[in-house]
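Deliverable D2.4 — example input (structure tokens):
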């Protein structure tokens, strides 16, 4: 059902945006390639990170729309819009110091993986490098976590060069945790929560 599909996309986008805004971005930890570029645009030009993320995602989506198809492209555009709006809604001051950075990293990465996994299960990308990861998973019939991890590496290095080398370690750990969750959610078999045959049982 189309309604169910877009409800899941909405949930995935909100969870992903919440993880970025509350747990990852305040420590300048990029959630991925697009998130890293958004952090850099905010750092260099003070562009609101939610809008910067939407802009980067939209640009990459335009490049890949030929292979995704209209339905998947529309779902992806909707998903990244929900994510960007969620980031703007929950966004806190950037670059705030915190003694809970590793706790935030763990929780943020787990939530990020759940959000991205929900999106990919619906055949839509979470945007950014996720567009390429979805293409790879679709045409190679494989899980999207590993290509997503490696494609984001170059963005992490750039972010580390500009802001702080400590970020790359946190970003790689975050990606490793989140992509493991992505693969789990993407490959998970969801069973019905009830058996509709109960109506036909004999009394």
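Example output (designed residues):
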């Amino acid at each position: 059902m189309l309604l169910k599909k877009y409800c899941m996309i909405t949930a995935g986008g909100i969870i992903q945006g919440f993880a970025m805004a509350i747990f990852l971005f305040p420590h300048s930890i990029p959630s991925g390639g697009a998130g890293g570029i958004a952090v850099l645009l905010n750092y260099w030009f003070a562009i609101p990170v939610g809008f910067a993320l939407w802009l980067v995602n939209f640009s990459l989506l335009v490049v890949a729309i030929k292979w995704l198809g209209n339905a998947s492209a529309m779902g992806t555009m909707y998903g990244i819009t929900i994510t960007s709006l969620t980031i703007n809604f929950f966004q806190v001051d950037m670059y705030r110091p915190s003694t809970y950075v590793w706790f935030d990293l763990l929780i943020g990465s787990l939530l990020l993986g759940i959000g991205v996994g929900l999106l990919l299960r619906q055949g839509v990308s979470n945007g950014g490098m996720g567009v390429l990861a979805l293409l790879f998973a679709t045409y190679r019939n494989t899980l999207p976590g590993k290509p997503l991890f490696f494609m984001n590496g170059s963005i992490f290095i750039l972010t580390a060069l500009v802001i702080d080398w400590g970020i790359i370690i946190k970003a790689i750990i975050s990606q490793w945790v989140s992509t493991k969750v992505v693969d789990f959610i993407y490959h998970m078999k969801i069973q019905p929560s009830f058996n509709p045959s109960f109506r036909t049982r004999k009394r």
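Confidence is low (pLDDT under 50) at residues 191-203.
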